[in-house]
Amino acid sequence: MDWTEIYTRLAADRDDPVAIAALAERVRATARRKLGGLDAAAVEDAIAETCAHTVLGLASAHGAETFRGFVLGHLLNARQRALRWRPATVGSLEDADEPAVEDDAGPAPDELELLRECFGELPERERRAVALRFFADAAAERIAAELGVTIANARRIVFNGVAHLRRCAYRRWPLGRV
Asked: What is the pLDDT of residues 79-96, one digit of tens each?
């Protein structure tokens, strides 16, 4: 049974067992692709939830043409709920690989030049706020006192300055570090 016929039969009779069975089969086929990371019980729960929400919410479907997407939306919502409530798996760290330690010699000369250029483009107040935060490791209270603004405004000024630096870096290196 195709999606249009399922919709038509359910619109006429929400308790139509043939239409509900066909809906469940269609949802099950889609669920195999969309819910691959869940165990069998969670997949079956998501299928049942999708069918129930679809039948109960049929009045808000926009017709037979969009019914398939309507059902898919309910399936994706069920997947989100299943993933949200899935218990976290705890693995052993015994067999885990040690993370590779990188030799961090600091930024490259061209990266420092980019930072200097972008830092120079900042408005004075943002430049002072960013310098205090990242070079002097100052807290928001100290930045606020030095700039003569509230703590909330000091945080916002730092945020705006960092956003300007990101935009400047992206303009100059749109592909990132190559």
From this structure: 888 877 766 666 677 777
Per the rule left: phi > 0, alpha: psi between -120 and 50, beta: everything else, 91 is beta
Domain extents for the chain?
Answer: 3-85, 109-172
Angle at 3 between CA 56 and CA 81, to 5 degrees: 45
Cα–Cα distance measured from residue 151 to residue 98, given in angstroms and rounded to the nearest whole number: 41
Considering only CA atoms, which of 106, 135, 125, 119 is closest in space to residue 172? Answer: 119
pTM of the model: 0.48
CATH code 1.10.10.10 for 109-172:
yes
> Are 82 and 37 spatial neighbours (Cβ–Cβ below 8 Å)?
no
